[in-house]
Design a protein that fits this description.
The protein is α+β, with helices and mostly antiparallel strands and about 625 residues long. The chain has 20 helices and 24 strands. Bound molecules: adenosine-5'-diphosphate (ADP) and magnesium ion (MG). Magnesium ion binds next to helix 2.
């Protein structure tokens, strides 16, 4: 007898199932895709125990007739394609005719369905439906049953006959997370379809039919993600690009909110991810990822979706074309949103500061900023310590000695002149950036005005310095901890029980920041070490710790990356030179010398712009020279 033999069909199905069905979320994906293909306007997903016990999907789509139902569980049985040519012009989510057969081979599956009446004939009365069961190797008979128009497919005891796979299932919470992520990927490109998700009978997600993608994003992820998104400037070409992207200032700590869709299907593609990164290059810190919801359409014939069993990867006929079109769309969107915020003189009186296209900060964030600013102002008012110095690295050239009009560094009691002009010694500094030169000046002790190639820039000294420090901190943290300074006399800090708990829970983060706190009697801790960065700035340890605790309490449920970013922003804000502080010529130069490296991400960590630009063209227009 030969060694080679044909595998029995049920084993073939099980093997196929191994490719497509990895976890409950895979079942949700297949069933919801079928419901979308059936033209459903409403899809309800119910899972039990994270889907490990059961998954059921109900839709109000076209339903199945008795004869079709009999074939639904048969392998390679589909209503979606008939001939090979169809493979090259697939418009439906499914086409392989494998999902239901695969699912049934590793679970107890049940379909109840009732065909929707033809248009105009009204709704078929319930009881006109049929049901069928299948499990492992057996497929049951079609039987009549009562059922509303549409289809419910329920799947129980996932992997009951493949214990090895069952073991790979994670805790219910983890599986539920995968289910809701899967549902988000299906719901985003179909805002007109209503979705619900329930877990153990409790509502988890409720997405009413929405009139726009933006609305769907807001319903799914909340205003924190949806507010301020920029609509992609679409291009009319062989590749249609639509969607929404976050402004650079709103870039996030993780790439969790980056979604790509091709012809209505969620896909993962390295090329597309690369185009996105490229579009933001220089605009965001490379460690941060802006939210992006990108919907591409290419003619079905120009893409092969039959590369991967779950169709999550595709093959473009002309990948470079898609890449180029996407990059061009994203760039023009970001350019239009104009991140270097040219000053519009027409509206100069109302707002010369914020770019009109940057999203307004959320009220909560604004409140928080205001209170931090207030705390700082109060602190400096009451503080008798000398004003903090800038702490810029000294520029590599002799210090300026001829700046007679400059108020003494840090001398806040002196009434500074409205315009201070540094000495002429800047003039010929080969290392100085384009912005540095004779005309560089500090205005109102808050802004620095400098010429640039095609006009002039106005720099917010606090915002720019803050950005520099933030970048420095990030860089330093990537290689280790921040330096801490031991306090000669540990400083007591009164804390509530909840705050003490926060200090214990975030001990590791605090250590990373160079902070050390020890228990010290009831309701009190002792600050023993404090970031060196702040120690030199006259920032009081207790004051800072109190604010840090507020931040931790506020953010304790956000991911640790985000939390770290928030805390670094806070550190940078505190350590940076303030508006109202007169700067010496040397300090201004030091700030400008490092501007180039920071300026690319032309927003301070809080998302405010650091630099505004006024072009010569704009000036000429305003002076009616043209
Ligand atoms: P595919 O989706 O690739 O065709 P499936 O195994 O997922 O393969 O489904 C087999 C067939 O069962 C589909 O082609 C479709 O005709 C029918 N079907 C499955 N689910 C539904 C549904 N929710 N509503 C109507 N028909 C369905
Ligand atoms: Mg399918």
């Amino acid at each position: 007898m030969g060694l080679i033999h044909k595998l029995p069909l049920h084993l073939v199905n099980k093997i196929a199932a191994g490719e497509v069905i990895e976890r409950p979320a895979s079942i949700v994906k297949e069933l919801v895709e079928n419901a979308l293909d059936a033209g459903a306007a409403r899809i309800d997903v119910a899972v039990e125990d994270g889907g490990r016990k059961g998954v059921a999907v109900t839709d109000n789509g076209c339903g199945m007739a008795e004869a079709d139902l009999a074939l639904a569980f048969a392998p390679h049985a589909t209503s979606k394609i008939t001939a090979e040519d169809d493979l090259y012009s697939i418009e439906t989510m499914g086409f392989r005719g494998e999902a239901l057969a695969s699912i049934a081979s590793i679970s107890h599956a049940h379909i109840r369905t009732c065909p929707r009446a033809a248009e105009g004939e009204g709704v078929v009365a319930s009881s006109g439906g049929f049901e069928i069961e299948a499990s492992g190797e057996t497929v049951g008979q079609v039987r009549p049953c009562a059922c509303a128009p549409g289809t419910t497919i329920s799947v129980r005891d996932l992997f009951f006959n493949t214990p090895a796979r069952r073991k790979f299932l994670k805790a219910a919470g983890t599986e539920l997370g995968h289910v809701s992520e899967t549902l988000a990927r299906l719901a985003l490109p179909h805002p007109q379809v209503a979705f619900t998700l329930t877990h153990n009978g409790r509502g988890v997600l409720n997405l009413p039919a929405a009139s726009s993608t933006l609305q769907r994003i807001a319903d799914l992820f909340g205003p924190d993600v949806s507010e301020g998104l920029l609509a992609i400037a679409g291009r009319n070409g062989p590749v249609s690009v639509a969607g929404l992207i976050a402004p650079p200032s709103a870039a996030r700590a993780t790439a969790k909110w980056q979604y790509f869709f091709l012809n209505g299907r969620y896909i993962r593609d390295r090329l597309l991810g690369h185009a996105l990164r490229e579009a933001y290059r220089g605009l965001v810190d490379p460690n941060r990822s802006p939210a992006a919801f990108i919907f591409l359409k290419v003619p079905a014939a120009d893409v092969d979706v039959n590369v991967h069993p779950t169709k999550i990867e595709v093959r473009f006929r002309d990948g470079q074309l898609v890449y180029g079109e996407l990059l061009a769309s994203l760039r023009s969107t970001l350019n239009r949103a104009n991140l270097s915020a040219p000053v519009s003189l027409d509206s100069a009186s109302q707002s010369a500061v914020a770019s009109p296209d940057l999203p307004p900060p959320s009220p909560a964030a604004e409140d928080r900023r205001a209170s931090i600013r207030q705390a700082l102002a109060d602190f400096f008012k009451s503080s008798s310590s000398p004003q903090p110095h800038l702490g810029f690295p000294a520029p590599q050239r002799p210090p300026v000695t001829t700046a007679p009009q400059m108020p003494h560094q840090g001398d806040m009691s002196a009434q500074p002149p409205a315009v201070s002009r540094p000495g002429p010694s800047h003039l010929a500094d080969p290392a100085a950036p384009a912005g540095s030169g004779a005309a560089t000046m500090q205005v109102h002790n808050a802004y620095i005005v400098a010429p640039c190639e095609d006009g002039l820039v106005i720099i917010d000294q606090h915002a720019l310095h803050e950005r520099m420090i933030y970048n420095d901190l990030r860089r330093r943290l990537s290689t280790g901890k921040l330096a801490g300074q031991r306090l000669l006399i540990p400083q007591p800090l009164g804390v509530t029980a909840a705050q003490a708990d926060l200090l214990a829970r975030f001990a590791e983060l605090l250590a990373t920041l160079g902070i050390e706190v020890a228990a010290f009697g009831p309701g009190t801790v002792a600050i023993q070490q404090f970031p060196s960065l702040l120690a030199g700035r006259g920032v009081a340890a207790a004051e800072f710790m109190r604010e840090l605790l507020d931040k931790l309490a506020e953010d304790e449920n956000t991911d640790s990356e985000r939390l770290l970013a928030d805390v670094l922003e806070m550190l940078a804000c505190k350590a940076a030179v303030k508006a109202g502080q007169a700067l010496t010529a040397v300090e201004i130069d030091a700030l400008l010398a490092r501007r180039e490296e920071c300026e690319k991400g032309s927003a301070c960590p809080h998302g405010r712009p650091t630099t505004l630009k006024l072009t010569l063209r704009e000036l000429e227009k305003q002076f009616k020279r043209t």
